[in-house]
Each structure stands twice: as structure tokens, then as C-alpha cells.
Amino acid sequence: MYEIVMPQLSDSMEEGKLVSWKVSVGERVKSGDVIAEVESDKAIMEVQTFKDGIVKELLVKEDDEVKIGTVIARIETGATASSDQKQAATKPTIVPKEERITKKQEVNKEDTKPNAAQTKSVAVTPKESIEPTHISHKIQSGISPKARAKAAALGVDVAKIQARMPQKVLHAEDVDKYVTEKYFTPKALKLLQEYQLESSFFELNHKIDSDEVQAYIDANEIALPKPLSPMQKAIIANVTRSAQKPIYHIYESIDAKLFEAHQEHSITAWLVKIFAKVMMQHESFRSQLLDNAISIAPNASLSIAVADNKNLYMPVIKDASKLTIFEISEQLAAFKEKLKTNSFTTQDMQGGTFGISNLGMLGVARFDAMINKDESGIVAVGGIKDGQISVTLTADHRVINGYEAALFMRDIKKEASEPLNFKE
After folding, report:
1. Taking CA atoms, which of 153, 195, 198, 411 is between 20 and 30 Å from 220?
2. Taking the domains of the chain in order of start, what are their residue ranges?
3. Which residue has the higher pLDDT, 388 or 111?
4. Burial class (CB in 10 A: 0-12, 13-18, 19+), 240
5. Among 333, 383, 380, which residue's Cα sits nearest to residue 357?
């Protein structure tokens, strides 16, 4: 039994439409006969058979769309059936109507029985070995079925479009371009593109300006789709990666008395100083997990969350354990300036092993933060209530176990209550 499948007419094609059958069940066919017409988004092509036989089954109805590779017909090849069954389903040869010279015509010209070499040349070719020229055809001019359908739906004269684009195959996007340029002003076209609106939403019998498009947008309360910025894409990728880490939280509070007594520097600056000191006593908090090892940094470097309405950055205070409180404050001030001017560099974001995110100054009581990149943990700093600063530690369980984290937070609370740590 010889099987004919829905062919792939273009690289982008996933499904094909069976336009019409040229044969019927029980009909005898010869190699080279056209058995069907199929349609992709770009052309209608004829499907030929490579084998002589009798049409046994037509498995797809006309106008049905099926995935490429789906068996659409079976041909009983008679005495050769047993040998044919050993072969995989085969793609038929596909040729454009205007260029087809059927093998049936070639065979009719022969006065003698084909020899062995001729028989071999028309044998079924396995699907995976068919030459690309058998399954594709570059049309030099014309209009694709989808473009013709779109033009008809919009009431556009195809001949006018073809007059503008001679020697070119017209596709649906060409029809769109013609319509938008003809019926929409430049400002109206810009709105169409921004809101991803179809030209078919409007009556194409006059020149449409931006006011008319805006009125349509307002009347239908259409949402504005905004493309993601490179920064937003980077944040999404980082957050998605962080969400895959096995984490846990520890909820604690720190005495706020000494922080409030030394307001010449911000709470964030003092926390950087204290956390950097304690990180030098707990190497897991200076660690990054590599493929087959854990990298332990010699000094404590902390990433600090800074953000505005649109962007979020995690610049790193490198070697914070070696810096004075003044130097830490200067770096935090530099981060704020770079945030305003959007001038952070890739180098600014590298080298951290632990992070700090402070939303307490915005009135947030407590929250959880996501670990940045390959760092081992992060602390989320909330507001002050009843003399206590709420902090939530998020740790990567692969690097820091719960016992280590508990000891770390115990030492943080101890150092935050030590007056010597607040000396300038």
C-alpha cells in the first residue's frame, strides 16, 4: 500500500488545506498523475503520485486542514504492495501547475517497456530523502490565497496592488501595507501600530486620521500593548531564574535604637556595614554555587536593590567589609545618581554574594525578597515598629542550611546592638 501525505510547501508551513481531489476511490492512476491540489499560506500546488495503482482511500475531505505529514490518501499498488509496505510513508512530488510535465506524459512517449534503470527512477522515495526541489516552488508573481482572501474581505482591488508591486508574489502583509498607506494618515497609522489594530476595524471609504482612530480606541476601551524594554526582559529572566531556587525564610526583628540615634547615615548604610562584618564570620554568606564547587569570596560584597517606577537594579558594593561608613554612604549616593541618569554598567552589577532590599522607608511593614542571580541570600528590610526593624532573610538552601542561617541572624542582632559598630 502506497501512502501519500500532506506535504510541507514552505519552511513555515505547519498545516495544509486540501483544496480538491483530482481522483476518486477505485480509479486507476499512473506514476506522475495529479491526484490533488493543496494550499499553504503562499500558494496552491499540485500533488502527484510516484506509483501506479488503484486509489484505495481518500482520507481527507476537500477544504479540510491537516498537519503536514498526515496521510491523505492510500493507493493499492497490486503485486508490488508487499515490497512497498516495508517503506515509510512517502512525500509525493509537488510541482507548480504551470511547470508540471507529468511522468504519465513521459511514459506515453515510450514505445517499449521501461528497463530496470527506468523503473528505479520512478520508485517511491523515502520521506526523509526527498530533494528540497520536490517539495517547494518559488513563484515569480501572483497572489497567495490568504492575500486574495484578505483583499476580498477588505474590498480591495487586487489589480491595483499588483500594479504597484509587479513581478512580486503578493502576501497578506502586502495587502495590509497597501490599505494602511491608502486610507490612513501617518499619525493614524502610528496609532494602529501602537495598539496593534487591524485596518478592517474601520470603514475603508475615506482617509482616516488619528482623531478617528483615537475615538475608536476610547470607545472600545482598548488596552495599550507596551513592548518589554531590555531592562524589563533582564528583570524577568533574573526573577524567573531566582524563583527556581530552593529557598526558605527566617523572620526576625532588629533593635532600631542605635540606627535612630545615628541618622547622619541611612539605615541601609548601617545595615551594609553590619551585614558585611557578620558575613566575614560566616563564609556561606560569601559563597556562590558553581557547577561542581562552591566559590567563597575573600571579602563581603553586597548587592543593593535600587529602583524607580520602571527599572530595578542590583548594583554591588564591592569589598564592603573593608569600607568605612562614609565610603558606603558615598557608594549608595552614587547608585541613586546612576539610577536617575540610567547609567549603570554591567560591571556595577557583578561580584555580589548577598543582597539587601529596603522598603521600610516607604512604609512597608514586612516583605520577602527574591535572591539576586547567583547569590546565596538576601535580606528584606521593612519598617520600624515599637523600636524594632523587621527583617526577612531569604536563603538558598543548597548553600546555607537553616542552622547556619539562625546563627547568622543571631550575630546580626548582636552587632546591631553594639554601640562600637556605629562609630564613624
Report:
1. 153
2. 2-135, 142-220, 246-422
3. 388
4. exposed
5. 380
Cα(115)–Cα(113) distance, rounded to whole angstroms? 6
Euclidean distance between CA atoms 301 and 304, whole angstroms: 10
Greater confidence (394 vs 120) lies with 394
Cα separations (Å) of 301 from 34, 219, 267, 372, 394?
Answer: 73, 54, 18, 13, 17
What ranges in 253-401 are assigned the alpha helix state H? 257-261, 267-279, 325-341
The bridge status of strand 28-29 relative to strand 2-5 is unpaired
The set of cell numbers assigned to 128 is 526523509
> At 84, which amino acid appears?
D
In which element (H, E) is residue 393 found?
strand 388-396
User: What is the number of H-type helices and E-type strands within the chain?
Assistant: 14, 21
Domain 246-422 part of CATH 3.40.50.300: no
User: Is the pLDDT score of 369 beyond 70?
Assistant: yes
Q: What does the alpha-carbon distance between residue 424 and residue 75 come to, in Å, rounded to a whole number?
A: 92
pLDDT digits (tens, 9 = 90+) for 171-189: 888 888 889 999 999 999 9
**Topology annotation, domain 2-135:** OB fold (Dihydrolipoamide Acetyltransferase, E2P) (2.40.50)
Measured CA to CA, the distance from residue 228 to residue 386 in angstroms comes to 42
